Amino acid sequence: xxxxxxxxxxxxxxxxxxxxxxxxxxxxxxxxxxxxxxxxxxxxxxxxxxxxxxxxxxxxxxxxxxxxxxxxxxxxxxxxxxxxxxxxxxxxxxxxxxxxxxxxxxxxxxxxxxxxxxxxxxxxxxxxxxxxxxxxxxxxxxxxxxxxxxxxxxxxxxxxxxxxxxxxxxxxxxxxxxxxxxxxxxxxxxxxxxxxxxxxxxxxxxxxxxxxxxxxxxxxxxxxxxxxxxxxxxxxxxxxxxxxxxxxxxxxxxxxxxxxxxxxxxxxxxxxxxxxxxxxxxxxxxxxxxxxxxxxxxxxxxxxxxxxxxxxxxxxxxxxxxxxxxxxxxxxxxxxxxxxxxxxxxxxxxxxxxxxxxxxxxxxxxxxxxxxxxxxxxxxxxxxxxxxxxxxxxxxxxxxxxxxxxxxxxxxxxxxxxxxxxxxxxxxxxxxxxxxxxxxxxxxxxxxxxxxxxxxxxxxxxxxxxxxxxxxxxxxxxxxxxxxxxxxxxxxxxxxxxxxxxxxxxxxxxxxxxxxxxxxxxxxxxxxxxxxxxxxxxx
Length: 539
Description:
Radius of gyration: 23 Å
CATH topology of the largest domain: Rossmann fold
CATH superfamily of the largest domain: Glucose-6-phosphate isomerase like protein, domain 1
Number of strands: 16
């Protein structure tokens, strides 16, 4: 089999109790046949326009030769470095594909000025802008982060005497504003199937074009996925998608947090892709499944919260030499193509089990609207509640600031975590300059005693951002923002990248606060120097 699961402990009984209903309701074959009624009358219209991913393998086959030919053309023009400007599903799938294949792809899914500049300038070994081709990926054609990146790269190409039409490739839905402007500019355009939502688009042009141009074997990826299609289409208890859905969305009480652990698998970065697929698909109407990306040594694996279901990604699920020590876990293995297919099916099935529409994202727009409002109004920054050792502290509730120290404020925030709650860390910083900040997740998880997520802003707004606002109201939020002198103009727009990322952080904080979620924002006035003190406070 191209995909294997091994169930241990209580999860065996959960799956055993749940599977018969899924099999009897013909859920798997219904998805394969494109039945939009599976998710109820309220979701039927949306589902009827969002099931194209089921046919993605066959639809995408002709793309392979086109992408390989374009790669040869770009190489002949001297463009051997590929940069991808995209957000959410448009960037996370290509990132996993290329990392697993071991080929270089620069993913620009941030508005942090330093990160944008690094993507433009490149490095001495890979070459700079002169050796670069840019893939611009946006389903709607109006994604603000992607549009800003495109504008910056167009200017950078012109500055070195390169016609942007020779170096920019666009992936978008047919009829989008981006398609029209790109064709007018003479860019190479790939239009994707509009019946596939962004987070289900791994095996469409959104996943394949940037990965293939970077050098990944996308034909093999489609072969891997194709080998799994029959397994997920049949209404039997052995269907891996039915089993996985039952494991992550079944049980009473249901474990509504999903711990994703990479433990020896050859696939690199898959939990980040699963995170956006599951969180954005299920986190709505006050319910959902919250993915929590863990290390093999994360605190949650010792404390074993009762509401956390562990899925461990390994290379051989049925031969994992330590599985007897992982009672209650789900062990998963398989090729990358198989993982894409099974997780997409399982997530759609989980949505049916939760009684929600897994294809919409009703709360994503709220943060975008708040950002636009801040950019248009340009209000003065909200004064800090206090500043200590170069860290400015802002809070959604004045009582959170009463301790007067960063450590005290964090303790006050943890005290607001309700039963079954979680902590979300949101880092609106240049992650190339501050990669160590991701280590804060481990400290916060240990200090708070609750499952903790970590997201780089603004990219998480296109994934877990939906869950934060639409899922259960049990999260507390820690924003990390940097005050930096590095900035970059956005050609044709009245604001800079620095202004944009600050507005995105402030806009999301305001929406979270309006939803009654406690928010603490820490602004690092000298980020490199103050990360250590932040780590100390989190302990």
